[in-house]
Amino acid sequence: MYKMKSDINFSLTHEMLENAENERIHTSYAQEKAKAKNLLEHSDYSLGEISTYLNFSSQSYFISIFKKYTGITPGQYRKMYRQISW
Q1: Count of domains in the chain?
Q2: Using CB atoms within 10 A of its CB, is residue 50 exposed (0-12), middle (13-18) or buried (19+)?
Q3: Each residue's pLDDT tens digit, 23-46
Q4: The whole model's pTM is what?
Q5: 55: domain CATH number?
Q6: Staple partner for 51: which of 12, 59, 63, 66, CB 3.0–4.6 Å?
């Protein structure tokens, strides 16, 4: 079966939009991760306060996303940083 030129153009446009959206999401998570790390390192805000500040729907979602992208929980990250800084 042959694809029509319009089908190919649609497929390419759709793929380009998906790639742009994935890049935007990745950049957003990277920025939020940097903000979260900064707050964990340099503030006494609770995890609940940090998750609210970063507009996460819940503290548990913040913890799961942080762990997904860093490999450790926010509490572990804060504890590790403070052990080094003291």
Answers
A1: 1
A2: buried
A3: 666 567 778 888 999 999 999 999
A4: 0.66
A5: 1.10.10.60
A6: 59
